[in-house]
Design brief:
401 residues, alpha+beta, 3-stranded antiparallel sheet, 11 helices, 33% helix, 21% strand, globular
Length: 401
Amino acid sequence: MSEHRLEVADVFRTYGDDFLARWGQVLSHQQKKAFEDIRACRTAALGGHVEQCDQCGHCAISYNSCRNRSCPKCQAAVRAKWLAEREAELLPVKEYFHVVFTLPQQIASLALQNARRIYSILFRAVAETLLAIAADPKHLGAAIGFLAVLHTWGQNLHLHPHIHCVVPGGGISPDQSRWIACRKSFFLPVRVLSRLFRKKFLIHLRKAFQKGKLQFNGELKSLAQPAAFEALCQQAGRIEWVVYARRPFGGPEQVLKYLARYTHRIAISNRRLISMADGRVTFEWKDYADGNQTKTMTLEAVEFIRRFLLHVLPSGFVHIRHFGFLANRTRKEKLALCRSLLPALKTAIEAGASSGDGDSTAAEPMSHRCPVCKTGRLIFIQILTVAALACLPAPMVADTS
């Protein structure tokens, strides 16, 4: 049996009580649920089931998964299903573009107490910006469609809200008679996007404040005063907001690989953890400010858990959204129109793009291969409740990642 690899859940289980003693009183309901779910994931606390090999008869007990979207081990099945649905929506265009919109730190800090409101405004400002600039005849002059994914973290687990957008290289003409393609390797001017994004975000932020929809407690309490809040907005309006376009994808097959890596990612994957000892956790991180060098960082375990839980989203908050001709209400009709306007190009799209994040990425059939005979399959035969598991001797457990 292979040696156990360090997981986020191990940190939670080992130092969870210390963390709760310091921070338990300020956790949101959703953060508490994520914390408990991750600690209990694939343990007897969630129950399990018995599987038996259809060849050699070997039996194994598998503990149930928590299914929490913040859990590093529970994303594979959801990701695979989501990717299969997205594959049918890819268009035969030569390039897909990747644009990232980032909030400045002084505005990002508001999300600590207003996550749902700030992240909703962020999505709205990004969508309005891309759709408006693309529709402008001075730039593309077309109705585009795109997918947007919210990430709230940086590599060091600090709060760093930003949205990744994946956009087909073109759009539908105003009269819907033709497909207007982007220039080769160029989508829209980044500086124009940045300025409009900043303007739209601050407009919506001010409206939210005027309607009393923002909370300010603790260190942010002074911002409840209109003068202080307006000073913050004016300060943010004088700096450049980071918007950048990465190298365009070569085609739909590369888009699927990218989506597999980014859409269902959480704040830190298990593969980045190096060690846990003496109340500290060491992990790898990539320093983008220093030539993308991979470095190591060591945090107190309690601080590591605190930073991780900063990125638990509010209950029911949708962190992957579609806009333009990919919007849910009109997607089917608009995609049919796009394909009718595009050249009849046959694109080979990889059906099984690998996720590349190191967590629970094994294909589903392999996860049920018998560990003894290596040829048979483990077949479900019995459910085990938590009470039933408590009465059993220590079993051989199969990790159903």
